[in-house]
Specification:
Rossmann fold; seven-stranded parallel beta sheet; globular; binds nicotinamide-adenine-dinucleotide
Amino acid sequence: MDLGIKGKTALVTASSKGIGKAVADGLAAEGCRVAICARGKDELMATAAELKRKYNTDAFWCVCDLNKAKDIENVIEGVQKSFGPIEILINNCGGPAPGFFLDLNEDDWSFAYDQVLMSAIRTTKLVIPSMLKNEWGRVINITSVAVKQPVENLLLSNTFRAGLTGFSKSLSNEVSKYNITINNVAPGYTLTHRLYELAVTRARISGKSHEEMLAEMAKLIPANRLGMPEEIAAAVLFFSSKQASYITGQTLLVDGGNYKGIM
Ligand code: NAD
């Protein structure tokens, strides 16, 4: 299917590996001009080189700590200078630290607030004006199954992703009449570095191995396996497409059936 986004400028944040990288790859495959950012220069350069090799495209890349407002401003300015206005924005971030309530201190809460909620709000605020001017845009936030079903030991994620979902719905009410859609893709357990780290933490608590923890996670999922980053990217690509023009303010779970509710 032609998604109708060839030649559009897309920024994917936190995209040197995992889900963000899979999304950048999918957008490049669709012929978008792709911009990527993360904190590590070497991994970013490797990802850009991979996109060049696979799709003969020159991705814009920029080192950025999404917890820092100034870094976000730099990225947006850099993309706009190189590629013009951002038409598709994918707000992804590093996963917040695990922890039960009494493990978490003030600094943990402030850090996760900047990391999960404010990073997406800051990028969106800088990108929406040109989307309004051009009367077209797609904003997709990567959240988590936690917005429907809180995940044990992930209080920071459970809290701030719910906030981001509220923000998305509110913003969609304001901008949808300008052909700008705002949606969320909520992954379940997906095989990336983030999940590996989570399995290691849980292994430490339970005294089991991280391989056992990953197998236990898979067993809880009706699909009986962990998700792959490309499967999350597929949903993001659909929300980015011209075909998804009348879908806004929504969250789509991509979790192999992990969420156990009916709606
Ligand atoms: P990952 O650890 O594989 O990749 C995270 C990416 O974020 C990397 O490119 C890393 O360099 C970048 N990053 C981290 N902190 C950053 C910062 N401060 N500034 C800029 N870049 C930063 O993670 P993933 O599994 O791809 O997860 C992506 C998002 O999806 C996370 O927010 C995660 O919590 C969420 N999520 C993941 C899963 C899962 O099972 N993997 C499930 C639900 C939600």
